[in-house]
Amino acid sequence: MLESLALWSPSFTSALQTELETGDNSFTLFNFSNVDANNYPSTRTCVSRGFLFNNEKSNVLVFTTDKRSSKYNDLLLNPRFDACYYFGKMRKQFRFKGTVRMISDDLTPNVIYIPKDENEEGSSEEEPLGMNENEVSCHSCSKKVETIGFHQPEENQSLVSQYLSKIHDNEKKFKISEPLHYKLFSPSYLGTMKDSAVSLAELGQRLTLQESDNKPISRTPTKEEWQAERLRVWNSLSRSMKTSYKKPTPGSPLTEENRKLLDAINRGVDGNNSSSGYENFVVVCMFVELVDEVVLGGSGYDHRYLYRLTSNDTWKEYEVCP
C-alpha cells in the first residue's frame, strides 16, 4: 500500500472543515509549543496551512514562520513539538506530538522510508504501553482499533506519559539534521504509480525510460519537490501576510530607521516587489507521532481517543478515560 489516511485524520479534517464552513474566519488558528535554547517552554498562536503537498494522506500538517525568528532557531536545536487545535463548533480538541522538519532557502527535510518486507507486514510489534487489547470499531472510520485495560494498579496513569517515557531515551540526541523515517512519498512518484490511464506495460516502460536517462526514481520527496511545496504555500498567502517577511527582524529594536521602513512597507512605497521577503519564508512540517483527541459531548458523555504511530508505520487507536 502506498499512502493512507491516519486513523485520526477523518475526525480531524471533518472538524476542520466544519469550523471553516460555520465560523467567521477563513483560516484556522492553533497553539504550537516547543522548547527554546534555555529549556523554557515556548508557545505561539499560528495559522494552519493544511497538509503537506496539499494532500491529506501525507498525514503531515504545515504552518509557516520567519527564518529570522527565535522559533526557527529553537527548532533547529530541538525539533520536538506539541500542537493544540480546538474546534468550538464541534467541541473537539486535538493535541499533536511529534517532530518538525523545515523548508527554507537553504534547508530541506531529509525523509527516508524503508517499507517492511512482505513477510513482516503481518507481524506485530511489541506493545510498549503494557495493555490488554480488544478490537472495537474505529469511531471515525470502518477500521478496527484497540481499547485498553490496565493490568497493574501502578499503570493507572496517563498513557501519553507512558508512551513519552518509553521513547524519551531514544530522543535525547535527536537533531533536525538527522534523517527522519516517515511514510511519505514523492508527489511525482505517487502520480506515476497512481496514473489509472497507464497500463502496466506503459508504466514499466515509463520507469525504464527514467532509469535509462539516469534519473533515479525517488520514493520520497526530492529537494526540488520540497522547494516547490515552499513556493506553493507562499503563493497561497495573502499580500499582507507576505509583507510581514520583508519587515525588520522580528523582536529587533524599534529604531527610527526601522520605524521609517515599517511605514514605507505599510504604505507600499518601500521599493520592493511582491516576492521580496521570500528568502525569510519557512514552511514548518509537523510529522505527527502521537495524537490526543477529546470530544466534549455534553451531559457527561465525553470521549477521548489516543492515536500513536507504530514502528511498522501504522496507526493504533485507543479509547481512554476523558
From TrEMBL:
Gene3D superfamilies: Electron Transport, Fmn-binding Protein, Chain A
Occurrences of domain Pyridoxamine 5'-phosphate oxidase Alr4036 family FMN-binding (ranges): 6-103
Molecular-function GO term, any one: FMN binding
InterPro entries given in the database record: Pyridox_Oxase_Alr4036_FMN-bd (IPR024624), Split_barrel_FMN-bd (IPR012349)
PANTHER family: AGL049CP, PYRIDOXAMINE 5'-PHOSPHATE OXIDASE ALR4036 FAMILY FMN-BINDING DOMAIN-CONTAINING PROTEIN
The name this protein goes by in its record: Pyridoxamine 5'-phosphate oxidase Alr4036 family FMN-binding domain-containing protein
